[in-house]
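Each record in this resource describes a single protein on a pair of labelled lines. With that in mind, the following record should read easily:

===
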Amino acid sequence: MSDALARTALAAYRLAGSLAYPMLGPYVGYRISRGKEDPARRRERYGYASIERPDNGPLLWMHAASVGESAAVAPLVRAISSCGINVVMTTGTMTSAHFVQEQLADCAIHQYVPLDMKPTLARFLDYWRPDVAIVAESEIWPMTMLELGRRRIPQVLVNARLSDRSFKRWKSAPWLAEALLENLAHVVAQSDVDGERFRLLGARAVTVAGNLKADVGPPSSSELALGELQWGLGRRPRWAALSTHPGEEELAGEVHRSLVQRHPGLLTIIVPRHVDRGDEIEKALLGQGFKVARRSRGEQPDEATDILLGDTMGEMGLYLRLTDIAFLGKSITGQGGQNPLEAAMLGTAVLSGRYVQNFRDAYQRLLKNGGARIVRDGESLASHVSQLLREPEQLADMATAAAGTVEEMRGALPRTLQALHPFLHPLKLSISLARRCRPAMPR
């Protein structure tokens, strides 16, 4: 009965994709108009390649949805490429495309991921002919998994995690989860909880390797930009609200208002998760009576500036180096939380709301070691920020504990490579055999 349900559901999904295929043009065009697609590379979303496939050696398909996932698997991509294996890496956003092209152009070919429809996937797979497919974190696309399974291309989920919401949704249809997850040759999970969830849903081979994000270095920063801002700010006390979601910017503003009398000269740094909300956030903060300097306009904060609005992409390393105290968003008015490891590895005291289920393992470790604190609301956040500004010894202890926690968590990369050995070793053998059998050049 469950098999029949799964077949029916997946057939309906396939049919819906076929019916929607003629509408791809308007859909992609709409996304282009919103700045969410690269118009020069729109055909890649239909599965058309824009770069020639390497004609020598095996090829691995790596997929990472966005910047965070791309950064997490970047060392893995380099390790695989160093074995002589060609890598085509797909992502789904323009910012992640820029990241791959800037950071991995010497070891991976970038393409936008084809939409999860049979014609686009067939075109993509017919052209690239991958020997193995590796997908990062929680990207489970039914048609992609089925098509790879039909072609007997091993597919592995790495740095895998399942949020509470996703697990609950899949548990409501276990027959569908099993029908999809049985296509996975291996799941390399971030934590014991994630590993057990994948097992319960039907994954047949599961390894727990830890979080690859702990093995990535801290985000970089322009020394010139950092020096200019630090010189301008001098010894002003400051804290940051990072990767904020709607409602959390106004909350940060209220925290600033409640603290500025006790901490004269206080500067609050607000960095929204989605920088295209800059105008909306500025309007709200001006409405609260604050003087705002916007990084996107190149405005330098002066003595009268209350809030530095960091509405720029790719500068999280800069904002983290400007503060020793960081509240991470999507955790009070939003759900799921944000990755605390970048802040922790730079020795920043981490504050967060309660809703951090997407990064539960990292927060549990940070809380246990004293590198993070959970706040209930704006009043609680203000209390913790004020205490840390008043007591530099406690702040230093939290910073040390945060950095030490990241050190404890390192090691996911070698463990992930070990789990991938059965899939990578045959590819390396084929390279070795090809080199051994290559005819000698005449002298």
Remarks:
- DSSP finds 18 helices and 14 strands in the chain.
- The chain has a mean pLDDT of 92.
- The CA atoms of residues 31 and 124 lie 21 Å apart.
